[in-house]
Amino acid sequence: MTAAPLTLIRRFTPLALTFVGMMIVVGCSDGTGLAKRYPVSGTVNYNGQPVETGTITFAPVDPEGRAASGTIESGSYYLTTAVDGDGALPGEYRVSITSRDVDFDAAMSGVQGGSPKQDDVAKAFEEAKDLVPAKYSLPDTSGLTYTVESGSNRNVNFDLTD
Fold first, then answer.
1. Residue 144, CB half-sphere, CA atoms under 13 Å: how many?
2. How far apart are CA 118 and CA 114, in angstroms?
3. To pair with 84 at 20 to 30 A between CA atoms, which of 72, 77, 128, 154?
4. pLDDT by residue (tens digit) across 68-97?
5. Closest Cα to residue 71, out of 62, 63, 79, 82?
6. What average pLDDT does this structure show over 38-55?
7. Are 106 and 71 in contact, with CB atoms under 8 Å apart?
8. With pLDDT > 70 as the criterion, what percentage of the chain qualifies?
9. What is the pLDDT of residues 110-162, one digit of tens each?
10. Average pLDDT, the chain
11. What is the DSSP string of 60-119?
12. What angle do CA 81, 92, 74 make, to 5 degrees?
């Protein structure tokens, strides 16, 4: 091999490797600007029965942390921080769970096309019945905690009682 091709290879190899490295970094990013999140999922039961519907929220203990939440359906949930199902950042969390029986039919009863009035929706939420004890609705009173670890966090189950 002559000296000219070797010189070209020596010059462009570092540039090519830098380009490939940048593509790998850009390709691994989800565009949120957040660190890697890890899947968190599990079940929520109240008095031994699956909670049919509700919301679960992981509030970070670290003030610099970021909350994650999920919808409970038929007792199961998974967490989202920024993108559906992306999980949660590693760290300690205080957990809150709400489940309310909101009468949306009452809120929609006066609607003739379009959306319900905000007052009607607010009234429906005010009159809603808690389906799990209210203490679980706040991270300060729930007594529920979890530490999200790097890797999979499956079967993060909560069994609520009176």
1. 21
2. 12
3. 128
4. 999 999 999 999 999 999 999 999 999 999
5. 79
6. 98
7. no
8. 82
9. 777 788 788 888 888 889 999 999 999 999 999 999 999 999 999 999 999 99
10. 87
11. ESSTTS--EEEEEETTEEE-BSSSTT--B-SEEEEEEEE-EE--HHHHHTT-SSS---HH
12. 55
Q: For the chain, first and last CA: distance in Å?
A: 81
The rounded distance, in Å, linking the Cα atoms of 160 and 99 is 12
Sign of CA dihedral 74, 78, 79, 82: negative
Among 66, 50, 84, smallest CA distance to 158 is for 50
Q: Say if residues 44 and 24 touch (Cβ distance below 8 Å).
A: no
Residue with tokens 């031994």: 48
Q: At residue 33, what is the residue type? A: G
